[in-house]
Amino acid sequence: MKIRLVPTLIMAGISLLIGYGFYAANAHDGNAGCWIMMAISAITIFVALAGGFCVKYGEGGSSVGIVALSVISVIVQLIINLIATFAPFHAAPYIIFSGIVLLAYIGIAYAMSKAL
Question: What is the pTM of this model?
Fold first, then answer.
């Protein structure tokens, strides 16, 4: 397993921009929810993107399953963030659902990397 630096920096930038986008979409509320959403969305999306696109698990195309899992995880995280943006924001359910999706992604990706 090897971490690639340039894709990691690119994915960090993408996840920070996505986090800022959700911050800007919720800044009109005037509460701390926009900061929570920015931090949680940036972290969860970065972990999923970095796990799929920044780590080289083996030779050849052996990590296609992990990349697909990462894309699915990012899509689910984006859906959670969009629901939290357009529905009345409650921090606890948002953090719980985002955390469950992130931990499920990490667990499944870990199992898949061990199988490689």
Answer: 0.88
